[in-house]
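#lab-general

N.A. 3:47 PM
ok so I finally got the sequence cleaned up, no stray characters, all 217 residues accounted for. can someone with queue access submit it? mine expired

B.Y. 3:52 PM
send it over

N.A. 3:53 PM
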Amino acid sequence: MTDAPDRAPGAPARFAAVLSLPARPRDVPPGIDPGEFRLALLEDTYEVVAGLDLVTPALVLDPPDQPDAEAVTWPGTPIVREATLAGAFAALHALGAGSAALVAQDAPDLPPLLLGKLFRAVGSAPSAACRAEDGTLVALAARLPLPGWLAAALHDVDLDTPDALARLRAAAPRPGLVPQGPGWHRLRTLADLRRLDPGLEGWENTRALLQGHPLGR
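B.Y. 4:20 PM
back already:
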C-alpha cells in the first residue's frame, strides 16, 4: 500500500527510502524521551536521503499509522506502508523506481557517498549491501523488480537480522549477486553514540537532542 503524488515524466528512477519501525526496542540515553530520540534519528536519516541528487526520497512505515514520522518528511514524499523489505521494494517499483535503497532509521550521520556507491553497485549486480559491524544492515539497494530468489529471501530477512548479508548470499543462485559496499554504523546501543563525530556535518536533530549528554559510555 502506498501514498504518493503522480510522477512527472522523466522523474528520477532511483528511490531511497528510510524505514520507520517504532515498535522495535531501542537503547535510549538516560534523560531523553524515547519517542523524541527515535524521531530525531529518523529525521536526520531522512535528510540524508532527501539530499541525494537524482534520487527520490521515501518513507516506509510499519506499522502503517505513524503521523509523527510522516511529519518529518518533505511535502510530496512517497509514503510506503509495508511490513517486509520485499513488499517495500515492490511498492517502490510500482511508483516507478528502477532501483531503490532501503535505509535503517538509526543512521543519522550516514555519508551520502555510501548510498551512491550502492546505487553504482546495482548497475552490475541485482543488489548491494552496506553492513554494520554487528552484522545488521545499514542499507540494502536493489534493481527492480527484484529477482525471485531475492524477493523470497527478503520476506524472512530485514535490516535488523544479525546475519542478513550471509543469508541473502546463501539464497543467491551464484556468488557475487550481493556485493558489499563500504560499511557504516547504526545507533542501536548507548555505546554506539561514541561513533558520532561532532566535527562531521549533519545529524542536526540528534546533535541537538544529545546536547549536554555524553556520547556513549
